[in-house]
Amino acid sequence: MSIDETQQQLPVGWQCATLGDICDFSYGASLPSHQRSEGSVPVYGSNGIVGTHAEAYTKGPTIIIGRKGSIGEVHFSPGACWPIDTTYYIEHPKLETDLPWLVYCLRSLDLRQLNKAAAVPGLNRDDAAALPISLPPLPEQRRIAAILTEKMTSVEKARTAAEERLKAAKELPAAYLREVFESEEAQKWPRKQLGDLATVVQNGIYKSAEHYGHGQPFVRMYNVPNTHWKLNLHTLAQVSLDDSEKEKFVLQKDDILVSRVNSFELVGKCAWVGVEAEGYAFENMLIRVRLGDQEDPKFIAQQFGTNQVRQQIEKVAKRAIGQASINSEDLRGIELILPPTEVQQRLSMMVDEKSCAVANIITSIESELESIKELPAALLRQALAGGL
Known about the structure:
The protein has helices at residues 3-9, 19-22, 99-108, 125-129, 138-181, 184-187, 194-197, 243-249, 297-303, 307-316, 328-332, 341-383, and strands spanning 15-18, 26-27, 41-45, 48-53, 62-66, 74-77, 82-83, 87-90, 115-116, 122-123, 132-135, 191-193, 198-203, 212-219, 237-239, 256-259, 261-262, 270-272, 281-282, 286-291, 318-320, 323-325, 335-337. The chain is of the alpha+beta class and 388 residues long.
């Protein structure tokens, strides 16, 4: 589309321009880290405020744009500030321009896409200067900026509220476990070591890379969730096994899988195997536990999410660089509380039903959050095309 055709589609009084017509990107000034903890003038890096200084580099309201690091991020200082040398800044536009409107305009351009893949990637200001802009008259800029500020404030409040609801929902499964396993009734239940209950405690199989990509569905430690006792089977590896390996390393319903090697915070995480994973194999980073008929496997898997079991795991876990591990003997020594079988079944079903309901709530809130996060870009597109 030609410039004349674009001009004809703009609201009356608007004009076609480039970013370079409106402003120049000036380089920020170097300021050593040890000088960023004095005074009251904000110091801006590419990702926002990184300290304070006694003196200001700019004299008034300033737009700061990430040049290195957080490339293309746009920040606004309502007063004088010090933009450091990983940034560009705009203090005095060349045309009569409302700075808050220009902030929104810059954010709508997604300057991150202008990242230049050099030895140290960065934003090229000549590329930015060539970007086309629909420029409204100054009063219209101010009107648009005021409306956007109000709408963005509402969006931010909605996002914060949704994030708080999401955090609260994610904490509910742990609360359900405390309700069961830290109750007064639970303190009276008998205790036994896992080794006294298990008929099988077995490491999974190691297979080298050439065996991956076809064959048996393969459960790995990434399929054992961090905060739940059900396997996550959305993404599965495949591995080729011979008949003897299949016989030894395929899962059965009501097996329990425990993470044998992981970060210290996640080693020992546990999941119950449902009917959907029967016949799958499991890797050597996991330990399979199979129980006798007197225990409810889901109740045991849920109990691994409690502080009482977590403390025991952390006590026996062996630390290494970047990871920790437990072995079968460590696992056999874990002490568990064991009410009668019918009580185990009743409680595990109750916890499971409540947690499934929470999972649906979490999915709904996450979907709501995704929609909220898309609103600012949609509002910017609408506003800067004359749609407000």
